[in-house]
Each structure stands twice: as C-alpha cells, then as structure tokens.
Design brief:
The chain has six helices and twelve strands. The strands form three sheets. The protein has a five-stranded antiparallel sheet with strand order 1-2-3-7-6, covered by helices on one side. It has a five-stranded antiparallel sheet with strand order 8-12-11-10-9, covered by helices on one side. About 6% of the residues have low confidence.
Length: 271
C-alpha cells in the first residue's frame, strides 16, 4: 500500500513524499522523498535542522551548491520521517553515530532504528519503532535509468545460482533482476552493520527472490546461506536467516522514474 503523505508539517509547495506501509509489519515505515524540491520550500526545511546541521551542509566540500542543498534536504526529510512514526517534532531529534551509521542518541528515550539510501534525485528512508534493541533496518534504492555495466558487475557480485537466474531472462530484463539482487544485498549489509569488505563481498550473500508475477505491493525475499564458507561468515555469531525479513516494495504508477528498492530488517527471532 502506498500513498502520498498529506501532513501539516510538509510545505504545501513541496513535492510530497510517498509513504509505504508493509502489511503485517505496521511498525516498519518507508518514505520516498524527492530531493529536487522547489527553492521556495528551503526555509521551511531549514527550520527542521539544527544550526550545526545547516552549517555542515553549507560548508561541505562540494563545489557546486546543488549537492550541499541535497545534503541539507536529506537530513531535514529524515527528521520528517522519524517525526511521522514517533510524533516527536522534527527539530527535536538528537543523533549520535555507531561507526559511520547515524542513530538516535540512547538518552533520547525512543527505541527506533532508521536507514536511508540515495539514487539520483530520490531518497528512501526506512524506519522502525523497534520492539527490542536487536532490531536493525537497512534500505537501498536504485534507479533503472542510471548507467551500469551489469555483465561486469554480475560476475563479481552475484553467486553462481543468482547468475543462472539472470541467464534465464531476456537481456532487457537482466538489469532489473541484477539491481534487485544488488539492492537486497545492500539492505542486508546496512542492517547487518558490517562494512562491505568485512562481509567478504556480496558473493557471501545469496538471495531467494520470487518472480515478478508473484509479487503484490510488497514482494518477500529471503536470505539463503549454505552454512559453509564463505556464506557462514555473512551472519554474526548466534544469528540465523530466520531472524531476517526482506521486502521489495512496489511504488505507485505515478512515481516519476522506475526504480528498484529493497528493505532488510534484522531482529525477528530475538526477544
């Protein structure tokens, strides 16, 4: 299910975000934001930011203003998404870092996790009000229009089984399938919390993905680990594939560009 968020907080002149709610997992929320917002909305978004955040965006190393504006808008819209699921005012959130991953400060008093991904002029935010501290969410979004050398990347990043699936498809469909695997692996890596290199590359992760005709608004996917090297080291000690849930959201037909998105959530087997 997807709908455009109509919220008094969001400027009327702005491009409203699309919110997706995963059936049977109402505590998980996804927001698709357009970062090419009209300039007249910038003061509105700036009011959600702290002064250090605003200054950090303005003083970033990017030479042109567009990336600096996107950086500021990204943080403002993250604050909006968290406000939507918690009821806290956007400017009131306090952040810390777990490595390079932003988190809510433990002293803030809300057990929630979030993650974001950029592609082109779009940003996907995934957020969850976590029932326990083991829950982590990872998201990834990939625009089909961006240029990629799929044949080169698939040999390096996909398992033999995943590559066999691509071989069964007509050439025009291979890019979307490759990006589906890629997005799922990115979502896994981000929720996992380990860097890409620590996982030993994406060949340590194998995903089972249903055919597109089997999918509804949200298509499930699953993690397939052989229990042998190199797959075994993809999960932290004590974790099992059943602790994870993966989803492939479908965006509304009026979404401006065709994109692939994936969500990975860790913690379902924990109490």
């Amino acid at each position: 299910m997807a709908h455009h968020t109509a919220n008094a907080l969001f400027p009327k002149e702005g491009i409203a975000p699309t919110r997706l709610v995963i059936p049977e997992h109402s505590k998980i929320a996804l927001f698709l934001f357009a970062l090419n917002q009209p300039p007249q909305t910038y003061p509105h978004f700036a009011a959600w930011l702290t002064e250090p955040e605003w200054q950090s965006a303005l003083l970033s190393a990017d030479k042109s203003p567009a990336p600096r504006v996107k950086k500021a808008l990204s943080r403002a819209m993250l604050r909006f998404a968290l406000s939507e699921i918690t009821g806290v005012a956007p400017r009131d959130f306090q952040f810390a870092y777990d490595g390079q991953r932003p988190i809510l400060t433990p002293s803030f008093g809300i057990l929630a996790d979030f993650n974001l991904s950029h592609s082109g002029d779009f940003m996907l935010v995934g957020a969850i009000v976590a029932p326990n501290p083991f829950f982590r969410i990872g998201v990834d979004i990939e625009l089909l229009s961006l240029s990629r050398n799929v044949e080169k990347l698939r040999a390096r990043e996909l398992t033999a089984s995943e590559n066999q699936t691509l071989d069964l498809l007509p050439t025009p469909q291979r890019k979307a399938r490759f990006l589906t695997y890629w997005a799922l692996k990115e979502a896994f890596a981000k929720a996992h919390g380990a860097g890409f290199s620590k996982l030993g590359g994406f060949k340590t992760i194998e995903m089972d993905v249903p055919l597109p005709s089997d999918a509804g608004d949200f298509s499930p996917a699953s993690l397939s680990l052989s229990g042998k090297e190199p797959f075994a080291r993809a999960l932290p000690a004590g974790e099992h594939p059943r602790d994870w849930r993966f989803f492939l959201p479908r965006f509304p037909p009026d979404t401006p560009q065709t994109m692939i998105a994936a969500v990975g959530v860790r913690g379902f087997g924990k109490k």
